[in-house]
Specification:
Chain lengths: 519, 653
Amino acid sequence: MTDIPWLTLAIALPALGGLGVALLPRERAETAKRVTLGVTLVTLALVAAMASMFTTSGTERLQFTEVYPWIPRFGVSYAVGVDGIALVLILMSAVLVPLVVLAAWKENDDADDQGKGYFALILILEAMMIGVFAATDIFLFYVFFEAMLIPVYFMIGRYGRGPDRRRAAIKFLLYSLLGGLLMLVAVIGVYVYGGTFLWSDLVGAEGALAGLDTQPARWLFLGFFIAFAIKAPMWPVHTWLPTAAGSSRPGTAVLLVGVLDKVGTYGMLRYCLEMFPEAAKWFVWPVVVLSLVSIIYGAILAIGQSDMLRLIAYTSVSHFGFITLGIFAMTSQGQSGAALYMVNHGFATGALFLIVGFLITRQGSSAIADYQGVQKAAPVLAGSFLVVGLASLALPGLSPFVSEFLVFIGTFSFHPVPAIIATVGVVLAALYILWMYQRTMTGPLPERLAQLGDLSRREVWAVAPLLALIVLFGVYPQPLLDVINPAVQETMQQIDVTDPAPVIGDADLTADGQEGESE
Amino acid sequence: MAVSDVYLAAGTHVNAVATEADGAILANAWLLIALPLAGAVILLLGGRRTNGWGHWLATALPLAGFAWAALALVQLLGMEPAERSISVPVYTWFSVGGFDVAVDLLLDPLSISFVLLITGVGSLIHIYSVGYMEHDENRRRFFAYLNLFVAAMLVLVLADNFVLLFLGWEGVGLASYLLIGFWQHKPSAAVAAKKAFLVNRVGDIGLLIAIMLMFSTFGTVAFSGVFGAVEQGGQGTMTAIGLLLLLGACGKSAQLPLQSWLLDAMEGPTPVSALIHAATMVTAGVYLIVRSGPIFEAAPAAQLTVAIVGAVTLLAGAVIGCAKDDIKKALAGSTMSQIGYMTLAAGLGPVGYAAAIAHLITHGFFKAGLFLGAGSVMHGMNDEVDMRKYGALRTAMPITFATFGLGYLAIIGFPFLSGWWTKEGIIEAAFATEGLTGQLLGSAALLGAGLTAFYMTRMMVMTFFGEKRWDDGVRPHESPTSMTAPMIVLAVGSVFLGGILVFGYRFAAFLEPAIGAPEEPHAFSLAAMLTSGPSLAALGLMVVGAAAAWFMYGRAPVPREAPAGNVITVAARNELYGNAINEGLLMRPGQVLTKALVVIDTKVVDGLVNGVAASVRNSSEGLRTAQTGFARTYALTMLFGAAIVVATLAVRI
């Protein structure tokens, strides 16, 4: 079993499926949809089977590894493998894609190819998303990182919404290209200093980058970091996201915000921190400050939006602030929380985009002002909307709470002040979600919305799995944490940081206080 | 400090893990939560299929919980007092590094008292709602939310650590939000619901930061771990934790300065006001403070702040209650005020804890009864809430009149009714505190007693006495048995429960292992209770307040339109300008900031980038369309990038 190239299969399957769908004749659009859904489901099964064999007790951090020389002259390899963090992100992507396909089933029926091209692009993108999380050769990572832009560019520019979609696509591309170029320089720099592109040879005390001088390390860190910050997106390089999300089909927005942006925060954790530990520690405070600005600024901007898609995009700026805060808190709770946050945010915000998308499909508008009292006409839609909204504001019992809470705990033990400032985001989150709900779902139902219609069976199938996961991981997140924790422990070892001890460091006080101070 | 000793001495084996020997009742305490939760899930996911029987299932589940809790109480009573503290581990919620959060339940005298109150009063209100919500098309959803509330509230009081408590804490906030906004088609209800959630979130931040501070100080968030180590925590840290917990308590319990949501919350259906916004959820802040007693014992400054907040709120709530013509809002002001009493008592330390909890429980009965009575009146008056349009209802609604009347006597502290026993306890405890502080707190409590008698008599008289001031077409009638039966049960509790609890300090003795005891407990003496100075003063003020109200509203006719009123009346009608302050200080500046940032984000931050984009577009004018133009640009860039790579590598090699 172990000889099966799981990751290569998981990359190749959607890639080939995408090619196949693209080559189907134009009038076979219905077949294209079915093939797409089938391929994404098989990919999900494949990834799930792989995940079931992942061991958390073993000594090997990277599992399912494959290394083949690709451009031997330059030391470039096709190298893939996953640790716990990459694994949960691949799982999340594989769960989201079929649901996006289901949700987008009829959305492009009026396009000249009836959406055939859109579905092909989704499959190609899935291959690249799995590839980017699986890559363990930084050149390969860079290739996936850049190549991902192409399908997204067309998904927004060609299959997007509204008159501004081309401009939005260009803006997305320009921003990403800028980051990509900086990263390319940094990737080359790493090769120049380290002599290899293989991540596992570069990091660690014995790694090829261990002897790197302070100055070049900081510059290389910045090259990667800026690329990732644009991707994440972090204030002040966030403005492409609301534009792109506002001009996207909701399905595209799910993949863009739910998965693609995670490459940014994943990259910070995997590459910025581990390849340049000293530089990362040197940049802690600037990043913490930017994270806090993102949290509060993103939340205030979300409150000020009049368009639902843009609103959700800004909430993500705020949420990504929590993720970067957790990563740079340099504590196990912060980093495990951040990694878990990436997964939970993918499900919760993904579901939010999908449900808002269902609303948009019905009325053709994403403006908040065009809706009122929807709860009366579509109670199931409104109820699901509220549940994912509550997830987004991190209500305990739903999955995002656990990750946000861990980020808080981890940040506070790093330093109380940023944790306390970040709590403002908790109040603002309640405001932007509940105000949006109030404006769209409550109040008297106007005549023009009376025939809105509740969720169809297909739409329920598209969001119900996400709702179930949000609740499941809200009350029982430990299976995910069991996978994530060892990878975070390794990361912390690589960068040589440890959790601060409690102020009253009594040895006999166990963590959960079971044997506490009973006398 | 004394009390953490007491806590440790009396509550010794706080974490005696429940074993099989403790029996199935205690070991399966998680069922208490699971039952109503299952009800909520079945009703919400079951859809219309459950319309026919859903409300009966939802009523049966809390009743089953009450029976379970009663059995658990019997088992607890059969144990040695010092051993009546049982931790029931369920599973590990999450664990990272040294941070473990377990779903562990704590059964002790304090939590079981709350469980009985929540399931007992909760069941009665479920029964009442069957009739009250009979004609509502969304009755099933209403019962689902009520069950959700009961489950969350039980999590709150059964939690054995602060994070699980926080789950219940925000869970009841959610249920409150859903139920205040239950009639979502009314914009006022939707706004009130959002406001309640938001103000509560401000308080929740206090609890959240307190938890962070606990973990970084003690390395644990479990009750036993934190309480057992307060001595090493340092006074500054303990004061900070105490004040943060108080902030959380203020939000949940509508204490100043986070009180403004409670009156708006009366937009919810009346059974909700009775259960959540009078009897149970709003008292959670008092529970939190009493439960965290060892922390406050180690932080005298925070403890004093608790008492002051309670004293100020008890007066503010009473003043608001005096001026409101909306029967539910007047009762809401009263709730603020009564919880103020409990908060005051909780801020007195161990001498006040038992008094606070005893008053909390009797208040749960008489205030729920009063709200259900108000609901019954509204039911018979076409949902009219303005007391100026009531009058002379005692003959039209005799049962409502009698039960409301008993609740009235209980809350104003008529001797030997429930409220008298428990409020006396608080007043006595306040005066027992040393120095000027005790005198001031005690005086506030006394003054509040007079105000309570005034506003409650006013309510009683305006509703049930005087002449008819009804709108045309209103035909008041008594409510159905499903509604009056719970009212009768609550009225019986309003009469007798206080005596049962307080006589001989039985309840205080029962609670002692969980909350500690005063350093110098004095023996119970009914004679002393009746003849002490504060007690006589309270009686006198009660008579004065009631008489004043009688002269103003009973002797003189009540105008159907509210008169202009003096400065104090107007201020009280406007809830002492709490909303105006929030709007001026927070809402309006917030709106300005939001608008400014939206402009800045599009014009400044984004504008810079758009400028770059525009210049690129101009430079690519020769290309056919922007799309292909940028695809080519992109390809070129990639090529350029690849060239750099190759060149660099070639140089190196």
